[in-house]
Amino acid sequence: MQVVTDHVFKALADPTRRALFERLARDGEQTVHALTHRAGVSQPAVSKHLGVLKHARLVRGRRKGRETHYSAQPQALAPMIDWMSIYGAFWRERFDRLESLLKRMDQ
Amino acid sequence: MKPDTTRSLVIEREMPHSPEKIWRALTQSALIEEWLMKNDFQPVVSHRFNFRATPVQNWNGIIDCEVLVFEPNSRLSYSWSSMGLMSVVAWTLTPTKDGTHVRMEHSGFRSEEDAAYKGARYGWQKFIGSLDRVVGGLD
């Protein structure tokens, strides 16, 4: 797990790779060609960045005809997410809902 | 996972309601859904169930759980697994003069060294935050 985590951190330390990953996470599966069109770097550079993301299991490539379609695998981020801050906000909001429900149960 | 490498989230509140009533809200499936999430909870130790949030892209919204402790009007605990997080939620109800002291402990979070610290070091914790609808989707 630690090794995988380090790969993920290193992969995302680069702003171009972060941008590529974010676009795939947001817009869904895309080809290298489509990604290059908007990345502002050459196609070989995009391919190289995708290779690093793939090694970190942040993206997956699916061969279709002559092109590879890449998609984001955000679950690779799970080991590093600060779940505690996410759940802190989540539970406080749910406690409010619980109290509101308990008031309604009185009626 | 070593105990000293994990952290817990604790929320405690005084509520002006009886433990029996709060217990119902914590353990009756239809009531749980009203304040927490859709679920197929059953009041039986070892029962496996799911909480279901609205699915978002790349997250099916499902949390896998198992009832670990069920002591009526007092203690309830279930495991909570989703998106690689393996954790435990434990509820403790203690009667007070005016109602009930409600304590929720969500434990099993990795240490800051593993998560927030590294995130800050690489300067992308904010980036993760911007993806919360993708990876979290907790509403």
Question: Care to describe what's here?
Answer:
The complex is a heterodimer of chains A (107) and B (139). Chain A is α+β, with helices and mostly antiparallel strands and 107 residues long. Chain A has one domain (2-80): Winged helix-like DNA-binding domain superfamily/Winged helix DNA-binding domain (Arc Repressor Mutant, subunit A). Chain A contains five helices and three strands, in the order ααβααββα. Chain A has helices at residues 2-12, 15-27, 32-39, 43-55, 83-106; strands at residues 30-31, 59-64, 67-72. In chain A, strands 1-3-2 form a three-stranded antiparallel sheet. In chain A, a hairpin with a 2-residue loop joins strand 2 and strand 3 (67-72). In chain A, helix 2 crosses helix 4 and helix 3 packs across helix 4 (43-55). Chain A is elongated. Chain A starts with a helix and ends with a helix. Chain B has 139 residues and is α+β, with helices and mostly antiparallel strands. Chain B has one domain (3-135): Alpha-D-Glucose-1,6-Bisphosphate, Chain A, domain 4. A seven-stranded antiparallel sheet of chain B has the order 1-7-6-5-4-3-2. In chain B, strand 4 (62-71) and strand 5 (75-82) form a beta hairpin. Chain B is globular. The A-B interface holds A 5, 9, 12-13, 18, 22, 25-26, 28, 72-75, 77-88, 90-92, 94-95, 97-102, 105-106 and B 7, 9, 11, 13, 15, 17, 21-22, 24-25, 31, 34-36, 57-59, 83-85, 87, 102, 104, 106, 109-110, 114-116, 118-119, 122, 124-125, 127-128, 130-132, 134-136, 138.
